[in-house]
């Protein structure tokens, strides 16, 4: 079997204009030339491009070497030639089928590199071949107009970057990909956004407004926005990184939660959502509230995530969707029926989603006896282990039809096992009529009352048990001392 060459990083000559540790030249170029024939021909192509060796390039291309080969940083031979300013090399590569606008790992293209290094003839050549300037849609010419939340692309270190998926965090959506990076010595989550999202001035303006709003959001149950890269492409959103993952992963690993834990989680989510809904001058609708968009902090508390960027909606009363929302990369299982029907909607769509999450988290809240607990474990084992999603046995396409028909996920446990009022709260939150659903402020009040009730009942059960255990220890100790005295008296 033919061995696969290990990934390489080409470090000779000028580096990418967007690389964090950009440097020019290398002290070991002569050393690199020794044994050149033994080097991967694709790497030799990059080396010859950095040296301006036309004959070497022609020989490699005629032997079938991939002209679009990318190193570990996604740099191509054309990137190298553009940095060095070798127009004849670039012409040869382009005639050989080289892509004119490939992006390296930092988002730089050959044209962007040529512009950075002021290689004017190279700029003209690339533009003649169709290269387009790499300009962020929000780029401003006046330095005074750069927003205060701006983070320079070079401040983000992607050396040991890892893509985050919803299975490990929350962080993938159709609008961008989240990656772990380092910013000023701290791990952060970075969401890269494609320029195709900003196809007109109206979308750019709306996005700018959203970023200004995100900058002001501060709440312990909301993931913290740290800044954004808007003056270079790709544009990026930087938020705090929570290494403990999302609620979906936690539920799959833990199954049904303990009563107090489930209620604490519910209050965390409700407080974060209440903060967003009571934002001034206009509320913020999440619209994609589900377990994979709720993250766990090191403290054990939950934080609402992914409420911003593409899904952020500022409203005064109602939102009228222009078209049915696309959920190709998330799930329909937590979305309110009015959204499926393409009707006007408001903040109550998030309350509907919350009801489904609450039911999923808070299955069992009290038991009359250990025997009851064992019976319930046996009858509802799959749901308890998996923390099943709403209508878990139903196909994704059938869930919207069920919601529109006013069907809701069944309660697998008998009513007596739910804390007083909890089941009723869930049913109110997923009410067919959005106006009948409570606000998160009211939800918090009711959850706090339920939590205090469960906690008091738990203390009432635990304290007598501890008292009897303590008394048992005292009785045993007194019995032991009495026996010792009796033996001593006989002696």
From TrEMBL:
Q: Name one GO molecular function term.
A: protein serine/threonine kinase activity
Which PROSITE patterns does UniProt cross-reference here?
ANK_REP_REGION (PS50297), ANK_REPEAT (PS50088), PROTEIN_KINASE_DOM (PS50011)
Pfam families, from UniProt?
Ank_2, PK_Tyr_Ser-Thr
The segment(s) forming the Protein kinase domain are 158-451
Q: Where is this region: Disordered?
A: 1-32
Q: Which residues form a coiled coil?
A: none
Q: Which domain of life is it from?
A: Eukaryota
Task: Answer whether the UniProt record assigns the keyword Secreted to this protein.
Answer: no
Q: Which spans of this chain does UniProt mark as ANK repeats? A: 73-105
Q: Which UniProt keywords apply?
A: ANK repeat, ATP-binding, Kinase, Nucleotide-binding, Transferase
Q: Lipid biosynthesis among the record's keywords?
A: no
* InterPro entries found in the cross-reference section: Ankyrin_rpt, Ankyrin_rpt-contain_sf, Kinase-like_dom_sf, Prot_kinase_dom, Ser-Thr/Tyr_kinase_cat_dom, Ser/Thr_Kinases-Pseudokinases
PANTHER family in UniProt: INTEGRIN-LINKED PROTEIN KINASE FAMILY-RELATED, SERINE/THREONINE-PROTEIN KINASE TNNI3K-RELATED
Family the UniProt entry places it in: Belongs to the protein kinase superfamily. TKL Ser/Thr protein kinase family.
Q: What is this protein called?
A: Protein kinase domain-containing protein
* Lineage of the organism: Eukaryota, Viridiplantae, Streptophyta, Embryophyta, Tracheophyta
């Amino acid at each position: 079997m033919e061995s696969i060459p290990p990934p390489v990083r080409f470090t000779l000559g000028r580096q990418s204009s967007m690389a964090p540790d950009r440097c020019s030249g290398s002290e070991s170029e002569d050393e690199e030339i020794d044994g050149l024939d033994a080097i991967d021909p694709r790497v030799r192509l990059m080396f010859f491009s950095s040296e301006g060796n036309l004959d070497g390039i022609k020989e490699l291309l005629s032997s079938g070497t991939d002209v679009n080969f990318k190193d570990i940083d996604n740099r191509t031979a054309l990137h190298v030639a553009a940095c060095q300013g070798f127009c004849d090399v670039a012409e040869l590569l382009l005639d050989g089928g080289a892509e004119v606008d490939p992006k390296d790992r930092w988002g730089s293209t050959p044209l962007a590199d040529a512009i950075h290094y002021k290689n004017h003839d190279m700029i003209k050549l690339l533009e003649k071949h169709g290269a387009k300037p790499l300009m962020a849609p929000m780029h401003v010419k006046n330095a005074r107009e750069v927003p205060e939340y701006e983070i320079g692309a070079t401040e983000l270190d992607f050396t040991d970057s890892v893509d985050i998926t919803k299975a490990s965090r929350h962080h993938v959506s159709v609008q961008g990909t989240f990656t772990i990076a380092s910013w000023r010595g701290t791990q952060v989550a970075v969401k890269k956004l494609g320029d195709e999202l900003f196809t007109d001035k109206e979308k750019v303006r709306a996005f700018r407004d959203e970023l200004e709003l995100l900058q002001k959001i501060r709440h312990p149950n909301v993931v913290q926005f740290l800044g954004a890269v808007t003056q270079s492409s790709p544009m990026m959103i930087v938020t705090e990184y929570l290494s403990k993952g999302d609620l979906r992963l936690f539920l799959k690993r833990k199954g049904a939660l303990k009563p107090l834990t489930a209620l604490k989680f519910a209050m965390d989510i409700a407080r974060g959502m209440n903060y967003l809904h009571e934002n001034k001058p206009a509320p913020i609708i999440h619209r994609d509230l589900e377990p994979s968009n709720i993250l766990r902090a090191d403290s054990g508390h939950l934080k609402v995530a992914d409420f911003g960027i593409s899904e952020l909606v500022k409203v005064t009363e109602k939102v009228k969707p222009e078209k049915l929302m696309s959920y190709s990369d998330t799930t329909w299982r937590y979305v309110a029926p009015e959204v499926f029907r393409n009707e006007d909607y408001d903040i109550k769509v998030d309350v509907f989603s919350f009801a489904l999450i609450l039911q999923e988290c808070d299955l069992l809240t009290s038991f009359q006896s250990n025997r009851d607990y064992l019976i319930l474990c046996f009858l509802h084992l799959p749901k308890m282990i998996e923390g099943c999603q709403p209508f878990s046995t139903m196909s994704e396409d059938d869930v919207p039809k069920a919601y529109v028909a006013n069907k809701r996920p069944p309660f697998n446990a008998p009513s007596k096992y739910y804390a007083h009022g909890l089941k009723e709260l869930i049913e109110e939150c997923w009410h067919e009529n959005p106006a009948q659903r409570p606000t998160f402020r009211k939800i918090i009040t009711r959850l706090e009352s339920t939590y205090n009730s469960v906690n008091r009942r738990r203390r009432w059960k635990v304290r007598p048990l501890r008292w009897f255990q303590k008394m048992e220890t005292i009785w045993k100790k007194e019995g032991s001392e009495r026996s010792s005295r009796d033996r001593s008296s006989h002696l």
